[in-house]
Every structure is written in structure tokens, then in C-alpha cells.
TrEMBL record:
The name this protein goes by in its record: Glutathione synthetase
Organism whose genome encodes this protein: Littorina saxatilis
Names of required cofactors: Mg(2+)
Residues where substrate binds: 125, 231, 463
Family the UniProt entry places it in: Belongs to the eukaryotic GSH synthase family.
Length: 489
């Protein structure tokens, strides 16, 4: 049985009316993608995919995710500072994964010559799902009791954590569609949500700490960018908080062609001194098609500009680090407070190393014997990379006892309870379908050695997809933007 916010309207004309109004609202309020003309043949804005109504999230689960975020911010910042831990965690991956090795080489070079900027800015998103252990005791609304749900971390995003801008608009959109459907809600059930404002506050603070009022913030972006409006939301929020800050945009190739370092390692791009570099690209091998992009990344990393993220923070977001942190005693090496340790560990799913040796061999056997219970994850961001089921089984059998398997980790598969909703995206008919959701919690952190300048939780989002869809990326077409309707069960 699927959970349901309420008895969704079944009348086709009523739903069609709500859909038409919702699409116009989304276009009017900047909840859109803007395809690049060279790639899509057009340049007009299009609605980002969204759910017609918000999806149910039990209050206890939502509060657990929100409450643990500041502890995760501290943990991941400290992980990025610990060279020995990163080296132990990634030593096997570096040998077999050229992309991670490229990042590691930059990190090592900068570490050996001395980091010019000790301050780092991190704009995080921690992704969770609700695992259902008991589908028998379901309430009349289709919602399981809290005791039957477990919050489980899917991944921790340390670079290019997206949709902080669009999701703020989605909250207002869903309040509107609930109003149109005649469904009441309270402010606690549909809370305010503006992650872009929190992210912008982090950028403004980092810019202030840099100490040059004439310096700019650089948004590092890809050459072809459909999600530019989400990025613009952050730019506009920066302007709202400090109208004197100038934001510029550029690619890795722009940095290579027009960027330079001064003798004291100031980063100059097209005659502007850069105070903060915010990376919305550079998280996958597709961003580095030649030595020029790698050279540009190294230049920025060697500079005095505040990086978001630093290359070491990006490395800390590798799935292999997530798996190593799940080992007994690992979190405790970074976090002293037992309550904070518990809040972090309570979200961990089963994570297994595939490194060469008995431990990795046992994990391979586990996955091959029960492929429906596990997922194979490479060290990649951006969606569309995970491997499931029989495809995973076949790949593991082909890799066998070769080092190729060390590119991956094995993770326990999560089984969330389905929920009814309408998903509005190209190619999907307007019908009430079973969906599942992934919840992201946004965090902002600024650190300088042992000092924390800023540590906040600053918003949330849902990514919702049809039940049975393995991947969850929105830009790549698997999921839609969604918001939580928070209920007390």
C-alpha cells in the first residue's frame, strides 16, 4: 500500500487545471531549466520537473535528518583536514581510478608546497532515504509508524550541491497547489525553506574573511549549462545580502586562458582578483577533457582564493570515504561528543569494502548471492552511475579478483515505502503513480584550521521518482523536484 498525503483529486479536469496553473507559476517564479541553444536547439526556459503535490515525510524522520546536519558538517570538515585518514581511505581507489588520482595529485602538490589559503567554504547536501522495515503496521493514511522507518544516508555531497535555489520556489509552488486542491496545511507541515539564502550567507562570509572589498566571487560552471537558473538564485541572494559583491562566471578553460597567479598567489581572472571560487563543475571526469582543465584546477587550488570546495574536501566526498567512516571507531576519531557520534552513526546503512583481500572477497560473494539487496557505487557525482541487480552481479563476476573492483564500494540497498503523487516531467503521462523520495539536507560550513567561522543547517529538498527507478538525478531525467509535507505519526 502506498502512502498518500490526502485523497488526491481524481477528477481529470481539476487535475489538469491545477497542472496548467502550476506550470505557469513555475515559469513565472524561476523554477526552470534553461537549455543551452547549442545543445538543445532552443534557448527558452522550460519548467524544471516537479511533483504536483508535496510528499509525506514523518516529523520524527525529518527532525532527525535536520538535527544531525551540523554534526555531519563538522565531521566532514575534519575528515578533509586529516591527510593520514584520506590517504588510508583512498589508497586503493587512487591506483585504479584516474579521475580520483588526478584530484589526489593536485591535493598532494598543494599540500607539499603549503596551502596558500587556510580558510575553506563548504556548501554541503546530505542525502537520505527512509528505509521501511515493517510494511504490515500501516496507518489508515498509508503511513507506517515511526518505529518501522529508519533514516539512512545515501551519500554526502561536498561539491556542486544543487537545487538550493529552485527548491525554495518549489515550497511556495506546493503551498499553492494544496490551496488549489482545497487541502489545508499548517506552517509546521509546510515549513519555510530557502537553502539558497544560507548558501549565499556562506559565500558572503567567506568573501568578507578574504578581506578585499574589490575582489569578486567566481562561479565556476560548465560550458553547456541547463541548470543556470538554480545557480542564478544563489547569485541573486548574494546580491540581496551585500550588493557591493560582484559575481562573475567562468569555465575551467576560461581560467586556463585568462587566469593567473600573482607573486603572492592572488588569483586573477580577466583583471579581477577572485576572493571565492564556487565550483558548480569539476565533479566528474567529463569536466577534464585535456591538460588545460587540470592545469586550471591546480592554479585555483594553489591560490589565496577561498575554495568551495577545496580539492581535499572534494576527495572527502568519495564513496570510499563514506564506507571507511562506517567502520567501528572511525567517526569517533573525529567527533568527541557521544551524542553527536550516535546521531551520525544512526543514519548509516551497511557499507562494504571491495578492496583486494578476504574482506573484499566476502563482500563480492554477498552481492552475487543476493544482488537485489545491494548497490554498487563508483566514486562519482551527478547521478546515473550506480549499478544494480543482475547488472551488478554480472559486473562483479566479470571483475572477479581483479583490482578493477576497487573503484567501487558495496552498499546495502534501501527500500522506501511508495507514495502516490503526480510527477510532472516530459514523457510521463499525467497519472497518479507510486513514487519514492530521497531527502537532502543542506549545510554550510566555514573552517580555518581548528576554528569554525560558520556551521549551519540551511534547508531541505526531496527528489522524487517513480517506484522501480534506480537512479535519482533530476538534471539527467530520473527524478523531479519535491518538498516534504511533514506529518506527526
Amino acid at each position: 500500500m502506498a502512502t498518500c498525503l490526502c485523497n488526491h483529486p481524481q477528477d481529470t479536469d481539476e487535475i489538469q487545471h491545477i497542472l496548467e496553473v502550476a506550470r505557469d507559476w513555475a515559469l513565472t517564479n524561476g523554477m526552470v531549466f534553461k537549455p543551452d541553444a547549442s545543445s538543445a536547439g532552443q534557448s527558452q526556459a522550460q519548467c524544471a520537473p516537479f511533483s504536483l503535490f508535496p510528499s509525506v515525510v514523518p516529523k520524527q524522520i525529518f527532525q532527525q535528518a535536520v538535527t544531525c546536519m551540523k554534526d555531519f558538517n563538522t565531521l566532514m570538515y575534519r575528515v578533509a583536514q586529516d591527510h593520514d585518514f584520506l590517504e588510508r581511505a583512498l589508497k586503493s581507489v587512487i591506483k585504479v581510478d584516474p579521475f580520483v588520482r588526478g584530484l589526489w595529485d593536485i591535493y598532494n602538490q598543494v599540500r607539499e608546497e603549503g596551502m596558500a589559503q587556510p580558510i575553506s567554504l563548504d556548501l554541503f547536501r546530505n542525502d537520505f532515504m527512509m528505509n521501511t522495515s515493517d510494511k504490515k503496521n500501516i496507518t489508515s493514511a498509508g503511513i507506517p509508524p515511526s518505529s518501522a522507518l529508519q533514516l539512512r544516508q545515501i551519500e554526502f555531497n561536498t561539491i556542486a550541491a544543487s537545487f538550493g535555489g529552485l527548491i525554495g520556489a518549489a515550497t511556495h509552488l506546493h503551498r499553492y497547489t494544496l490551496d488549489l486542491a482545497g487541502k489545508p496545511y499548517t506552517s509546521s507541515e509546510m515549513p519555510d525553506n530557502d537553502p539558497a539564502r544560507g548558501f549565499a550567507a556562506g559565500m558572503v562570509k567567506a568573501w568578507e574573511l578574504y578581506g578585499n572589498p574589490d575582489a569578486v566571487i567566481l562561479f565556476l560552471v560548465s560550458g553547456i549549462e541547463s541548470n543556470i537558473i538554480d545557480q542564478r538564485w544563489l547569485e541573486f541572494k548574494v546580491h540581496q545580502q551585500n550588493s557591493k559583491i560582484r559575481v562573475i562566471r567562468g569555465t575551467l578553460l576560461d581560467v586556463h586562458a585568462k587566469g593567473s597567479l600573482s607573486d603572492d598567489k592572488k588569483f586573477i581572472l580577466d583583471k579581477s582578483e577572485v576572493a571565492v571560487v564556487y565550483l558548480r563543475t569539476g565533479y566528474g571526469e567529463d569536466s577534464y577533457t585535456s591538460d588545460k582543465e587540470w592545469s586550471a584546477r591546480l592554479m585555483m587550488e594553489r591560490s589565496r582564493a577561498v575554495k568551495c570546495p577545496t580539492v581535499r574536501s572534494q576527495l572527502s566526498g568519495c564513496k570510499k570515504v563514506q564506507q571507511e567512516l562506517a567502520r567501528s571507531g572511525a567517526v569517533e576519531g573525529f567527533v568527541e561528543d557521544p551524542k553527536a557520534v550516535k546521531s551520525i552513526r544512526d543514519t548509516f546503512a551497511g557499507l562494504y569494502s571491495l578492496d583486494m583481500g578476504t574482506e573484499g572477497d566476502d563482500a563480492v560473494k554477498l552481492a552475487i548471492s543476493s544482488p537485489e539487496k545491494y548497490v554498487l557505487k563508483p566514486q562519482r557525482e551527478g547521478g546515473g552511475h550506480n549499478i544494480y541487480g543482475e547488472e551488478m552481479k554480472k559486473l562483479l563476476e566479470e571483475m572477479g579478483s581483479t583490482k578493477e573492483r576497487e573503484k567501487f564500494i558495496l552498499m546495502e540497498r534501501i527500500f522506501p515505502l511508495p507514495e502516490k503523487n503526480y510527477l510532472i516531467k516530459s514523457g510521463i503521462p499525467l497519472t497518479l503513480v507510486d513514487t519514492v523520495s530521497e531527502m537532502g539536507i543542506y549545510g554550510v560550513h566555514i573552517g580555518d584550521g581548528d576554528k569554525e567561522h560558520l556551521n549551519n543547517q540551511c534547508g531541505h529538498m526531496l527528489r522524487t521518482k517513480m517506484e522501480g527507478t534506480d537512479e535519482g538525478g533530476i538534471v539527467v531525467g530520473f527524478a523531479v523536484l519535491d518538498t516534504p509535507y511533514i506529518v506527526d505519526v
